[in-house]
Here is the input.
Amino acid sequence: MAKTAKVSANPEPGGLIVHISGLLPSLSPAEQRVARLVVADPADAARRTITDLATAAETSEATVIRFCRSVGMEGYPQLRIRLAAEAARRVEPPDARVVGGDIPPGADLAQIIATIAFNDARAVEETAEQLDPAVCEQVVDAIDKAGRIEIYGAGASGFVASDFQQKLHRIGRTAFYFPDVHTALTSAALLGKGDVAMGISHTGTTLDAVEVLEQARARGATTVALTNFPRSPITEVADFVLTTAARETTYRSGAMASRLAQLTVVDCLFVGVAARNRARATKALEVTAEAVQPHRVSRRRS
Here is the structure.
């Protein structure tokens, strides 16, 4: 199976900042300084000359040009045009100084709530904007035809993996989630052609998830990676790569946003699979709902 391209050479205008954020870990330290300036304030970066931006990033003009090419731009003029378009479409709330940035020291609970709500909503919206429907369709097709589906994730990503397994199981699909890496590896070793293995890792560097996908792929299974960073190690062992768009902030509220972004992708895949077999899925949901109904508290009318 041909491996899906990990990085778009010509990212959509609405997703340029998301695109750059996702590539940031794969850039050189000097290019990362340029990237952080661009992501932090696209409008300001668009106004700067190449010399100004290089000086602000404490690097050279040559590095800025290399950065442009690393993120799929032909040169600095094209980057400035795309950044200006990005800045024009971004509508910030009135209290953007707090909500659009990090959680400042001494922030009260109202500011914390506003910041987290904004970051979570932005993560879901930007994930949906940059999600490739064609790749999603291929993944849905693979899952729909799979004899066995295994989903892996550690930490917060493990909760998402468990959620996806439970959703698929509710519509009668044979899906498994193994929180223990040894169990996951031994199970992956028994997969084969026609099976699907999906690894979920925000950073894409979680060794457990990478090793399990590597094992599954070696056995001929179709492998899927869900990550925030399209050039991370997990993508090297994946046939299909789906990306989220979540950013880290103080106290790792970005980790909360990443979980919501991952759940957004998982829900899209789940509904896509269910829609392929609507009658069967509907029946399965009804039967499973009836099975647990006796365990719900019934309210008696007085």
Summary: Residues 1-10, 96-100 have pLDDT under 50 and may be disordered. The domain at 132-291 is CATH 3.40.50.10490 (Rossmann fold).
